[in-house]
Specification:
The protein is built from 3 helices and 14 strands. It is mostly beta strands. It has one domain. A hairpin with an 8-residue loop joins strand 9 and strand 10. The structure holds FE2/S2 (inorganic) cluster. The site of FE2/S2 (inorganic) cluster has 11 residues, from loops. The site of FE2/S2 (inorganic) cluster (FES) has 11 residues, from loops.
Length: 277
C-alpha cells in the first residue's frame, strides 16, 4: 500500500480530548449542524470578530477556510511567525496583533475548534515557534517520506529539496511537497496541528501578492490543520485520488471538505474567547 495515499493511524480522539475538550465542544453547542462560527456567550478573553487569511474552502460542508500561519526561515529551519515576533507587534486587550504584508494578523486567527483553550495560544505564552516534525501524534496525518525524520525535530528547507519533482501518486507531481508538523507545542500536553507545503506555485504567487510575499518564504506555506466544519484534523494535501477536486488540494476525510492551499482569501469569523488566566 502506498501509505502516502492513505492516512496513517490517527489518534484524533486523544487530540479531541486533549485540546477540544468537553468545554470547547460545549461552546460549539451545535454538534452535527455543521456550524462552527456561532457566537459564544462563555466568558473569557480575546475573542470576537476577526478577519483572517485562510486557505479557501472549495467544497464540502466546511463554511470557511483554515487559518494560515505566516512562515519564515531561520538558520535553515521553518518557523511560524507569532504576532509579537513581527516588527511592531504588540499585545493589547488580550490579543497579540501585528501588521504583516498590509494585513492585520493576530492570535485570534487560531481561536476556534477548542484551540483557544491551548495554553500556547495565549498572546504572551513562550514558545520557540519552529515547525517540528509530527509523525502521527495528536491526530496528524503523516507522509511516507517524513518517516525518516525524527519526531520533534525542526523541519528544514533541506527536507524539501525535491519539492519541484515530488509526488505520491495522487494528483500532479511537482505541485508541492507536504509535511505534517506541530507548532508552539514543545512541552505542551497537546499539539497544535499544522500542515506545510513547499510549492513552486507559492513562489509564483508571492511575486505579485503582498500578503503571500510576507507570509511565505522559499515557497513554504503553512496553515493550522484544523477543519472548520467539525474540527477534524484533515488528512491533508494530495491525500485523496478519488474525491472530485481533492487530488491536488487539501482533503478532510471526515465529511469530504476540500481546501485549496493556492487560493488564500480573507474571511471574517467569530473567534472564541480564551479561558480567563
Ligand atoms: S469535513 Fe467535517 S470535520 Fe472536516
Amino acid at each position: 500500500m502506498d501509505e502516502d495515499k492513505y492516512p496513517a493511524p490517527s489518534s484524533r480522539r486523544r487530540f479531541v480530548k486533549g485540546i477540544v475538550g468537553s468545554a470547547a465542544m460545549g461552546s460549539l453547542g451545535v454538534a452535527g449542524s455543521g456550524l462552527t462560527t456561532v457566537p459564544t456567550n462563555r466568558s473569557g478573553v480575546g475573542g470576537g470578530s476577526v478577519k483572517a487569511k485562510v486557505i479557501k474552502n472549495t467544497d464540502g460542508p466546511a463554511n470557511r477556510g483554515m487559518s494560515q500561519i505566516p512562515i519564515t526561515v531561520e538558520d535553515g529551519a521553518l518557523k511560524g511567525l507569532w504576532p509579537t515576533a513581527v516588527d511592531g507587534g504588540e499585545v493589547e486587550d488580550g490579543v497579540a496583533t501585528a501588521t504583516l504584508g498590509g494585513v492585520e494578523y493576530s492570535n485570534k486567527w487560531f481561536q476556534y475548534c477548542g484551540i483557544q483553550t491551548h495554553p500556547k495560544i495565549a498572546p504572551e505564552s513562550e514558545a520557540d515557534n519552529f515547525l517540528r516534525v509530527d509523525n502521527g501524534s495528536d491526530g496528524s496525518i503523516t507522509y511516507d517520506w517524513q518517516s525518516e525524520l525524527e519526531a520533534g525535530a525542526k523541519l528544514t528547507v533541506d527536507d524539501f529539496a525535491d519539492y519541484e519533482e515530488w509526488g505520491n501518486g495522487v494528483g500532479d507531481d511537482g505541485l508541492g511537497k507536504p509535511a505534517a508538523a506541530n507548532w508552539r507545542s514543545v512541552e505542551a500536553d497537546s499539539s497544535l496541528p499544522v500542515q506545510v507545503i513547499r510549492s513552486p506555485e507559492i513562489e509564483r504567487l508571492a511575486e505579485d501578492d503582498e500578503w503571500i510575499a510576507a507570509s511565505t518564504e522559499k515557497g513554504f506555506i503553512a496553515w493550522l490543520n484544523k477543519c472548520t466544519h467539525l474540527c477534524c484534523v484533515p488528512s491533508g494535501f494530495k491525500q485523496s485520488a478519488t474525491v472530485d477536486g481533492a487530488a491536488n488540494a487539501v482533503y478532510c476525510q471526515c465529511h469530504q471538505s476540500i481546501y485549496d492551499p493556492f487560493d488564500v482569501v480573507s474571511k471574517v469569523f467569530t473567534a472564541f474567547p480564551r479561558p480567563e488566566e
